[in-house]
Write a structure and sequence with these properties.
The complex is a heterodimer of chains A (about 110) and B (about 230). With about 110 residues, chain A is mainly α. Helices cover about 60% and strands about 0% of the residues of chain A. The N and C termini of chain A lie far apart (about 60 Å). The model of chain A has no long low-confidence stretch (mean pLDDT about 90). Chain B is an all-alpha fold and about 230 residues long. Chain B has a single domain, classed as Cytochrome c oxidase, subunit III, four-helix bundle (Four Helix Bundle (Hemerythrin (Met), subunit A), Up-down Bundle), CATH 1.20.120. Helix content of chain B is about 80%, strand content about 0%. Chain B is built from eight helices and two strands; from the N terminus they run H-H-H-H-H-E-E-H-H-H. Chain B has a two-stranded antiparallel ribbon with strand order 1-2. The chains are: A mainly alpha (about 110), B mainly alpha (about 230). The interface between A and B is large, with 56 and 58 residues.
Amino acid sequence: MSQQIVPLKTYVLVFVSLIGLTLLTTAVAFVDLGAFNTVAALVIAFCKMLLVIFFFMHLRHSGGLVRVVLLAGFFWLALLIGLTMSDYRTRMWTPAPDAWSSTAPPTHP
Amino acid sequence: MADMHAEHTALAHQFEDLAQQHDADTLGIWLFLVTEIMFFGGLFAAYAIFRWLYYAAFEGGSHILDIRLGAINTVVLLASSLTMALSVRSAQIGNRRALVLFLILTMILGGVFLGLKAYEYNQKFVEHIVPSLDWAPDGEALARLTPGGLDHAQLYFFFYFAMTGLHALHMIIGLGLLLWLVLRARKGSFTPSYFAPVEVVGLYWHFVDIVWIFLFPLLYLIGGRY
């Protein structure tokens, strides 16, 4: 079998790190970092996701096919969110002609 | 001998051996999880747009949620992921008792999560901040929601219920799958060379955990709590 038996210690260490990151993200929410509050929350969530994927979900010991499938999934998600937001966030760069104003999308507050 | 019998019946005829079957099973669940990423992805994309458009309303809505309950539930779910990973490990080393024990522990932790979630949902009804069904914020909730606009705040709670509700639905399905695993594990269906069902349900469970890892900061921690 290709399955590797991961030592108990590894799982416990990963769990402790996940709890630590949860406490960290909660604590950071109480500090005023301006726009970086969101950045910090997302970066911490991303790190937690990597820990779960690589250790609990055994991506560390998985073959190339599984990795390609996962990367394709993230790539598609990035397209979904990236292209959608690039549309919404650039709509007000050029003012809509007056004739369109009744159907113009809402602008950023 | 019992193990050999279990392995014989576990191997589907289209596979060469159990190792090949295990690889195919794992790839299959990963493909399913990728479609799940896109399924939740639609909600996350819609959330991103409206949070940006109506940021003040989303911030106000977020600040009504109980951050302690959110954080506790995160810890509970992470713990259930640990016990799930240990279930798979127990199956790998052929420890049936530990396998059953960890699977049941995972179910208990999943149940605690859903219980806390149900309590939170109930709180929303008490505070009349359930969109459509019971939307009449008053007192502190009204004060927090008014600056961003009540209609837009209602939209935030639509997202709150849709995202956590879809997540909870996945948890309930996961609990059903875990129960199925417990029953099979007790009968001794899993061996160190055949435990793909445990691994596959485990991957699904961890995925649901990851969704919550993002839901917690996105719903509870908007704009900080200082």
